[in-house]
Write a structure and sequence with these properties.
Helix content is about 40%, strand content about 20%. The protein contains eleven helices and nine strands. Strands 1, 2, 3, 4, 5, 6, 7, 8 and 9 form a nine-stranded mixed beta sheet that branches.
Amino acid sequence: MLAIVVPYYKSYFFEETLKSLAIQTDNRFHVYIGDDASDESPEELLKKYEDQFAFTYHRFQYNLGGMSLVKQWERCLEMIKDEVWVQILGDDDVLSANTVSMFYEHLGIVDQEDSNVIRFATQVINEKGALTSGVYKHPVLESSEEFLIRKYKGGTRSSLSEYIFRKEKIDAIKFKDFPLAWSSDTLGIIEFSENKAIYTINDTLVFFRRSDKNITGQVDSVEKNEAWFRFYLYVLSNYGKTYSEELVTMLFDRIEKAQLNNKKTPLRWVKLFWLYLIFKKYSRFFSLRIKIKNSIK
């Protein structure tokens, strides 16, 4: 069975999320709602949906997401009983009515392919629920390396809500705790897939909401910059030697950009220079020195 975990904090769009769960054409799922000690209790709202789909609600006694969103995800995941697959759905995102039914329709093929990660097609909506993008579809089978290359070339987008993972992989590998959980989901996709293909279901949509009330819609910050640096460092250090030169170059481009946007971080400079040595990217070192000189003129 499928577990849909909703780490709850803001009520602003939450009813739209609940409505999308209530209209699912296949009810073989259980929703776990973990209230991060929100000032906006959803309990009265949830009473409207008690007979419309199965859910478990738990209010945590202290706020954790303010310190670590990943740790909030983890304690919400601990609510799950015996479900094999899990989707972590944002409290402002929306499912198409046939999302769950398409999951079960494709599950046999997913098992044949031995995939650990399932992905749905997506479309972006705004605060009013209006569509602000085209539909993002994907290859039915795609490696995490191919996914990253396509993403960095601007060919797709990605967020946590449109993915379903084998629960055992989350339990064994864990999400990495980057600031604001920024890029923690992308790294989860890489690591949970374990070099097996990501399986895409393009027959339904998950609607990702971009607004100034969520982290994605907010301007870049020191925390996002730090998360980006840690993500690129981790991926290059742990997987870079197995990646194509094309992807390695893309990752170096991005880690250098992150570093140039926050130059007053001595330890990060040491880690970046270590990467140059490991990958024998000596020419990049000298090119970066030129960029630094030009940026301070």
